[in-house]
Amino acid sequence: MTAHAGWEERFDWTALTSILSLHISFTDVSVRLAPPIGSRRAVHSTWRHPFLLYHKFTISDNNKRVVMSRLAVVFGGSRGIGRAVSQLLAQRGHRVVVVSRNKEAAQATAESLPGEQHLGLSCDVSKEENIQRAFETVSKTCGTVGYLVNAAGINRDALLLRSKSEDMLSVLHTNLLGSMLTCRGALRNMLSHGGAIVNIGSVVGVKGNSGQCVYSASKAGLEGFTRSLAKEVASRNIRVNLVAPGFIRTDMTTGLEKEEAVRRIPVGRFGEPAEVAQAVLFLLESPYITGQVLLVDGGLQLAL
Q1: Are 194 and 237 a contacting pair, CB within 8 Å?
Q2: Among 27, 66, 161, 182, which residue has the least CB neighbours within 10 Å?
Q3: Residue 152 neighbours by CB under 8 Å, 6+ apart
Q4: What is the pLDDT confidence band of residue 257, given thresholds at 50, 70 and 90?
Q5: What is the mean pLDDT of residues 154-182?
Q6: What burial class does residue 53 get, using C-beta atoms within 10 Å of its C-beta: 0-12 exposed, 13-18 middle, 19+ buried?
């Protein structure tokens, strides 16, 4: 006989399909159910479960699927792919911290997300002290990080002979070093309970491309970093993966010759940020996948 014995008798299983939420605090699990058909009394049950901490659960009434709600931090979350990821995570019931260099954009994005208690923060990922402050704020105001998505990135495309040293450093600091530092900050938060990290790379980091030596190097480095970190932290129940998009309809691709670029893509079109977000969500929620690179490029790598 365990300390939890007896809660099954108090739990009204007939109301399971009408469940609204299952909120887990640091000490108790509190279940609130809508009243069963024909009953005016809502069902409430509380029991202690030390293993299931830090999380909120929701159960979809449509498909009876349990979704574990986590705190997700999305760097570069106010624009493009990062914004699409923030929106999808919020739709899934996760609490989202939108991090952007522009504080107003981050806060506006957070306020536009479905659900409650989302947060917008300002952070320049090329500066270590900014990242430290961001995670300190998250820990104090939001709690324990479950998901990290690194979608912040810049490009300074040019042939190598025409590339300026300051542009090289800016790209490497933002795209590679910035993601390394945010991962380190999140790991300190995840070590006690596990989590998942998805870095946003690029098909260019996998295949290379003329005129993008520096950008390609930053994304290729991020791929190697992702695989190595996945090996380091797998035993702590932390998974690390990378999504490598191709041509996606964002600010970064506005200057491309669309017709020429589309001819190189087997599916015949640019991708949408929401399609990359679906891949990110898949990797975040897949408990047996780590150290992988998922190409979301419409088959572009086949033509490079």
Answers
A1: yes
A2: 161
A3: 75, 76, 82, 99, 100, 101, 125, 174, 175, 178, 179
A4: low
A5: 94
A6: middle
Assess whether 147 carries a catalytic annotation. no
Residue 185, phi then psi, degrees to nearest 5: -65, -40
CA 207 to CA 254: how far, in whole Å?
Answer: 21
How far, CA to CA in Å, does 120 sit from each of 88, 172, 180? 16, 25, 21
Neighbours of 301 (CB within 10 A): 15
- Both tokens of 50, joined, read 């030390």
| Residue whose token pair is 């912040």 | 152
pLDDT band at 121 (very low <50, low <70, confident <90, very high): very high
- Is the predicted pLDDT of residue 4 greater than 80, yes or no? no
- In the set 54, 147, 215, 288, the catalytic residue is 215
Taking residues 69-76, what's their average pLDDT? 95
Side chain identity, residue 229: L
How is residue 130 written in tokens? 């900014």
Whether pTM exceeds 0.70: yes
The alpha carbon of 155 is separated from its chain's Cα centroid by a whole number of angstroms, namely 21
Residue by residue, DSSP assigns 85-125 as HHHHHHHTT-EEEEEESSHHHHHHHHHHSSSS--EEEE--T
pLDDT band at 227 (very low <50, low <70, confident <90, very high): very high
* DSSP conformation letters of 240-257: EEEEEE-SBSSGGGTTS-
Residue 263 is predicted with a pLDDT of: 87
Q: How far apart are the C-alpha atoms of 171 and 183, rounded to whole Å?
A: 18
Question: Rounded to whole angstroms, how far apart are CA atoms 23 and 56?
Answer: 5
Measure the CA–CA gap between 266 and 77, rounded to whole angstroms: 29
The amino acid sitting at 232 is: E
